[in-house]
Amino acid sequence: MLESLDRSRPAWHADAACRETPGVDFFPDRGENSRAAKAVGAGCLVRAECRAWSLEQDNDLAGVWGGWTRTDRRRRRQATVRPSSGHARRYSPGAGWA
């Protein structure tokens, strides 16, 4: 059973720093401190892959992924940058700002 779960995970999971920090809560309840989990994610070697993956998931994905909380991910999905030309640019997972 666990072997099938490991095969369904992206390859970058194997290099994730969170796998090596068992004392950190990566799924804090609402209102609980997430600083330690955010710090681990911010310094992770696969941070970019983790963040992109988390943005592609459902808006209700729980936990800290790549140093971003659910609120951080929601803000990035909704972020719109308006360059001087007046055209809106949106963040697209895997493609960056378009």
Question: What this model shows, in words?
Answer:
The protein is mainly alpha-helical. The protein is built from four helices and three strands, in the order ααααβββ. The protein has one domain. It has a three-stranded antiparallel sheet with strand order 1-2-3. The N terminus is likely disordered.
Percent range of helical residues: 25-40%
- Class by SSE composition: mainly alpha
Sketch the topology as an H/E string, one letter per element.
HHHHEEE
Provide the domain count.
1
Mean pLDDT: 81
Number of strands: 3
Total helical elements: 4
Q: How would you describe this structure in keywords?
A:
8% strand, 3-stranded antiparallel beta sheet, 4 helices, mainly alpha, 3 strands, disordered N terminus, 98 residues
Quick description:
35% of the residues lie in helices and 8% in strands. It is mainly alpha-helical. Strands 1-2-3 form a three-stranded antiparallel beta sheet.
Which secondary structure elements does this structure contain, and how are they paired or packed?
Elements: H1 2-8, H2 35-42, H3 47-56, H4 70-78, E1 80-81, E2 89-92, E3 96-97
Antiparallel strand pairs: 1-2, 2-3
